[in-house]
Specification:
Helices cover 5% and strands 45% of the residues. It contains 1 helix and 10 strands.
Length: 140
C-alpha cells in the first residue's frame, strides 16, 4: 500500500509538502508490480507517486477539499482523510478506475490531508486487498 500526506495552508498561506510517499511492505506482492501482476484476488502493488493529490480551500475559506486522481494504470482502492481542528479526521474510501478522480470536502479543516492506496482490479475484493496490505490506520 502506498501512503502520502500533505498539508495545504489556509488561503493566506502557501502550500507545503509534509511527507514523502512511502511504500509499505505488501505480503506476497512486489513493490514494482503493476496491474498485469495482480494476484488471484486482483490485488497489486502500485507505482510510487501514481496518485495526484491536491488540496484547495473554498473562496471564503470555510471548507477544504482534497482531490485524488488515479494515474496508476489500473483500478485502485484509496482511503483518504482530511484533518479537522480538535476533532477526529474526516475520512472516506473509494474505488477508482485508471484516469478517474474523487474529491472529499471538510468543514473546520486544518489543511492537512493524507491517503493510502493499493491496486484492486475487482471492486468486490477491495476489502481483501486492503487487508493483505495490513489495513490502514489513520494518523500514521
Amino acid at each position: 500500500m502506498v501512503k502520502a500526506e500533505r498539508e495545504t495552508r489556509h488561503p493566506a498561506c502557501t502550500t507545503r509538502f509534509l511527507g514523502a510517499v512511502t511504500i509499505a511492505s505488501l505480503m506476497a506482492l512486489s513493490t514494482q508490480a503493476g496491474a498485469t501482476d495482480a494476484d488471484e484476488d486482483g490485488c497489486y502493488a502500485t507505482p510510487s507517486g501514481c496518485v495526484d493529490m491536491t488540496g484547495n480551500w473554498s473562496s471564503n475559506g470555510d471548507r477544504f477539499t482534497s482531490r485524488y486522481e488515479n494515474n496508476c494504470g489500473g483500478r485502485i482502492v484509496i482511503n483518504h482523510c482530511n484533518y479537522r481542528s480538535g476533532k477526529s479526521p474526516d475520512c472516506g474510501q473509494n474505488g477508482l478506475r485508471a484516469g478517474r478522480s474523487t474529491s472529499w470536502s471538510t468543514y473546520e479543516a486544518t489543511g492537512k490531508y493524507e491517503a493510502e492506496w493499493i491496486g484492486s482490479l475487482q471492486a468486490g475484493n477491495d476489502w481483501v486487498c486492503v487487508n493483505k496490505s495490513g489495513g490502514w490506520d489513520v494518523g500514521n
